[in-house]
Amino acid sequence: MRVSPTARALLLPLLLAVLNPFLWGALAEQLPAAEAVFNSARAVLFFWAGWRMVAIARKGAGAAAVSGALLFFVDHVVLKGGAFLIHALAAREPERHQHFLAFAGVFFSYLMFVSLAAALGALGAIAARIYARRAAVAA
Q1: What is the residue range of 20's domain?
Q2: Residue 80, CA distances (Å) to 2, 59, 135 in order
Q3: Percent of the chain at pLDDT above 90?
């Protein structure tokens, strides 16, 4: 079975984006700066996904921007929002409504900040192109 270069480029960043909230969520009690480290790791993953889209999949900055937005969607809407939806299914009526509202808040915050994730992915693509050009000149 042959894996496409795009899937190969996104596999590791997606895996780390899924593990990121669990790792820093577990350390939040012991580490006061866990939230800042979590968000910094998110930003690095968006940038790195864009880099890998250029370096491995040979895609452009547009695809790299989409990769940043995709990672943010998985991290934010699927994981965090999905947790709220699962809690809504298990909760009774007054709390159920609060969990659905929390999911809506997560979704709308995704819409507000997706451009930042896309910009970081595109910056990763630009950095990868500059690095490849400089490496080609040095060689």
Answers
A1: 5-138
A2: 32, 29, 40
A3: 75
